[in-house]
From TrEMBL, chain B:
One of its GO terms (cellular component) is plasma membrane. Coiled coil: none annotated. This is ABC-type polar-amino-acid transporter. It is a peripheral membrane protein. It catalyses: a polar amino acid(out) + ATP + H2O = a polar amino acid(in) + ADP + phosphate + H(+). It comes from Streptomyces longwoodensis. Gene3D superfamilies: P-loop containing nucleotide triphosphate hydrolases.
């Protein structure tokens, strides 16, 4: 096997010719789409869950607590398989499409949102705890209601203090999207499995995909880390 | 004591703004407010003093229901305090509150702090709210700090912004919960001056404080609390020169002689 460090153009072609015929970029694009949609969805659902967990209504608090404690303790694979086999096959949830591939994608996003939201909720709740109680008291004292106090005063400060932990959740989500391969979504890990079955360069294939994920997650961590410093609330 | 409060009620029966009747509150086993009866007339400045742990801060916070009470009634401008919800939020907008630790919204500029309630609660338009906010910041002497964040201001400046924020709501009564206790000594006066001006302008004020100088010069009445009870209330001159209860005599002897 020729050394991958040889810089001759032809040599490079020989080393990486196992990539030919595979849409690696397309597969990673699917990973990016899964991650982005699931991130937005879980941020919204996670914020709502956090609002429930700090709300004065016992029923909402109970629901929020039960949801988080159940969902975050179920393996992601089980949740993704359930959304495909359970929701789609048994309950006939089609999510508005008959196309099998599109359906798999949407079910996967649904599963990731359901799962990741529990972690977003807990990160956010720890952020809410960093906001001094006087902030909410002052907000109520000028006549803001519960939801206004949360939306205008508490959550904006809570978000800024948990950008770091949320970056962790986002990185974990990016890597977790590989589980979607289990229900046939053509993302990076699914393609990697196919390629490992068909090609001989197992180690190289692994390295290429590992590198692909690092390219996606490393900037995420760096940018959000920078943002977290920039937006920190000074007290 | 009780005879004094009865006399007050007779004098200002129509002008009563804040009325507390047999208010009780417990923190666990601690009975922090014990049968509190207190009436504050429109335009009156009442200073509440007493040793720490006497319940004066709690009393102040019950008036806009930041602390709930176990029994008794509190009425503001003839209306009893409602349960938590929209009604209560509306009422709180009419009751300005200034905290010991300022509690300015840390992620908003000084100007935004003073505009927020006007826009979100009073539904004023932005331009109107900004004009009013700038005028109020000017009145409390921090107009030049309008675009800074609270953390960039000194304690005294922050507390004056907090007063402006409360005034922006056009409150009927202002509550001050130890407004100068967290300040460096050289900043206390700038805050007290703003409060004194407010008193001269006829604002109804309930002030929990350790500043006896302010009590003497600005208060219409001094309420002395100890162990969850109102022990004595009188005009400041009378209270400071001739306290009737032993508890008040003891308290004053400890704070006035050094």
């Amino acid at each position: 096997m020729p050394s991958p460090y040889v810089t001759h153009p032809e040599a490079r072609e020989i080393v990486f010719d196992f990539l030919e015929g595979y849409d690696v970029l397309g597969a990673f694009w699917m990973t990016v789409k899964l991650t982005a949609l699931s991130a937005v969805g879980s941020l919204i659902w996670g914020t709502l869950l956090a609002a429930m967990r700090v709300s004065p209504v016992p029923l909402m608090r109970g629901f929020g607590t039960a949801y988080v404690n159940i969902v975050r303790n179920i393996p992601l694979t089980v949740i993704i398989l359930f959304s495909s086999l359970g929701l789609a096959d048994i309950f006939g949830v089609t999510l508005g499409t008959d196309d099998f591939k599109a359906q798999g994608f949407r079910l996967a996003v649904l599963g990731f949102v359901a799962y990741t939201a529990a972690f977003v909720c807990e990160a956010l709740r720890s952020g809410i705890n960093t906001v001094p109680v006087g902030q909410a008291e002052a907000a109520r004292a000028i006549g803001l209601g519960f939801s206004q106090t949360l939306r205008l005063i508490v959550l904006p400060q809570a978000f800024r203090s948990v950008i770091g932990p949320l970056a962790n959740v986002l990185i974990a989500l990016t890597k977790n999207t590989t589980v979607a391969a289990a229900i046939g979504v053509a993302e990076a890990a699914a393609l990697m499995k196919t390629m490992i079955e068909n090609e001989a360069q197992t180690l190289l294939i692994g390295a290429v995909f590992a590198f692909g994920f690092v390219v996606l997650t490393l900037p995420t961590g760096l940018i959000l880390g920078w943002l977290s410093k920039r937006l920190a609330v000074k007290r | 004591m009780t005879d004094v409060s009865v006399a007050k009620e007779d004098v200002a029966a129509t002008g009563d703004l804040v009325v507390l009747k047999s208010v009780n509150k417990h923190f666990g086993a601690l009975h922090v407010l014990q049968d509190i009866d207190l009436t504050i007339a429109r335009g009156e400045v009442v200073v509440v003093i007493g040793p720490s742990g006497s319940g004066k801060s709690t009393l102040c916070r019950t008036i806009n229901r930041l602390e709930t009470i176990d029994s008794g009634t509190i009425t503001i401008d003839g209306r009893p305090l409602p349960q938590e919800g929209k009604e209560l939020a509306r009422l709180r907008a009419d009751v300005g509150m200034v905290f010991q630790s300022f509690n300015l919204f840390a992620h908003k500029t000084v100007l935004e702090n003073v505009m927020l309630g006007q826009i979100k609660v009073r539904k004023s338009d932005k331009k109107e709210a900004e004009e009013k906010a700038r005028a109020l910041l000017d009145r409390v002497g921090v107009a030049s700090q309008a675009d800074k964040y609270p953390a960039q201001l000194s304690g005294g400046q922050q507390q004056r912004v907090a007063i402006a924020r409360a005034l922006a709501m056009g409150p009927k009564v202002m509550l001050f919960d130890e407004p100068t206790s967290a300040l460096d000594p050289e900043m206390i006066n700038e805050v007290l001056e703003v409060m004194q001006q407010l008193a001269r302008d006829g604002m109804t004020m309930i002030v929990v404080t350790h500043e006896m100088g302010f009590a003497r010069s600005a208060a219409n009445r001094v309420v002395f609390m100890a162990d969850g009870r109102i022990v004595e209330q009188a005009a400041p001159d009378q209270f400071f020169s001739n306290p009737r209860s032993d508890r008040a005599k003891d308290f004053l002897s400890k704070i006035l002689h050094h």
